[in-house]
Amino acid sequence: MEISAQLVKQLREMTDAGMMDCKKALVEVGGDIQKAVEYLREKGLSKAAKKADRVASEGVVGVEVASDFSKASMLEINSETDFVAKNDNFKDLVAKSSKLVFDHNISDVSTLNSIQIEGTKFEEYLQQNIAKIGENIVIRRLESIKVEGNAVVNGYVHSNGRVGVLIAIKYNNANSKTPAAELARNFCMHAAAMKPQVLSYHELDYEFIQKEKVALIAELTKENEELKRLGKPLHKIPEYVSRSELTAEVLESTKKKLQDDLKAQGKPEQIWDKIIPGQIERFIADNTLIDQRLTLLGQFFVMDDKKTIAQVLDAKSKELGDELEIIKYVRFELGEGIEKKVEDFAAEVAAQMQ
């Protein structure tokens, strides 16, 4: 039968349920509005809509990895309070949602919503859980990575469930599979702690780097004022801040200056080749501070802080007689980017009593 928009509007005003839920309820009961109210109450959907405008910024990040490292998935499920995030019903929802995403290799919420779970669409299943648990719950984002051929994907979720990371590594030799998977896991743990935003400097555009450069130099200059007052060594103010600025011309010019310095110091020319590579490496480290803050490959590895992730990857490649390459990096931190709504407690109680 045809359900009028006016009837849907009336049911929505009576129950605060979503428009689509109201229409479906009316269709199910043949347009009888009182039966539709009962239908929504039985489904728990009349409560769910009232919770939908409340900010969900707690919750958990879940990670699933295949035993053969051929695929992995990660999702962030938000709740309103940390208390509910520890609820058994919520944990069950997370486990079932994670398995669904993993089994079907899903990478977007709209696809997840259309998948069947326990005889119903996931979107409806989630609404039922919202009503049962008593808080707004949001599947905020998810990612699935499936690799083929000579590649592995591994993941890590921190023990508090607030940070998760997936990393995929490509290799050439079959014998490299296990060490590549172990390395991916270690890099995931590093990324969980050190918060790189992107994989490499190639993902940072020129305008962004120049803005960050101005801010970084101002920050270091300000810190130097305090260091000078305390009589401590000052920060070097870098001329460059990213590997993208260190062109072949810049590196060649730097090498020439270093050679001139060694010559002025009276160092024998035959030993320059042993000294200059280390000095170039130091120059690059001093002039890639933005990369070290924001990129995975540019950061110094927490398990070997003398080498960047890129250098560790290169060293492992040489050790294995292979060529390893990170082909995918994804990091979720619970609630990042969400503005948490802070309300006056007395005002909140007063609002609920109206």
From TrEMBL:
Domain Translation elongation factor EFTs/EF1B dimerisation: start-end pairs: 72-224, 238-336
Organism: Helicobacter equorum
Keyword Protein biosynthesis part of the UniProt annotation: yes
Coiled-coil stretches: 206-261
Region ranges (Involved in Mg(2+) ion dislocation from EF-Tu): 81-84
GO CC field: cytoplasm
PROSITE patterns in UniProt: EF_TS_1 (PS01126), EF_TS_2 (PS01127)
Pfam families membership: EF_TS
Gene, per the UniProt record: tsf
Family stated for the protein in its record: Belongs to the EF-Ts family.
Subcellular compartments: Cytoplasm
Protein name according to UniProt: Elongation factor Ts
Chief location bin: cytoplasm
Cross-referenced Gene3D superfamilies: 1.10.286.20, DNA helicase RuvA subunit, C-terminal domain (1.10.8.10), Elongation factor Ts, dimerisation domain (3.30.479.20)
Keywords assigned: Coiled coil, Cytoplasm, Elongation factor, Protein biosynthesis
GO MF entries: translation elongation factor activity
Described purpose of this protein according to its UniProt entry: Associates with the EF-Tu.GDP complex and induces the exchange of GDP to GTP. It remains bound to the aminoacyl-tRNA.EF-Tu.GTP complex up to the GTP hydrolysis stage on the ribosome.
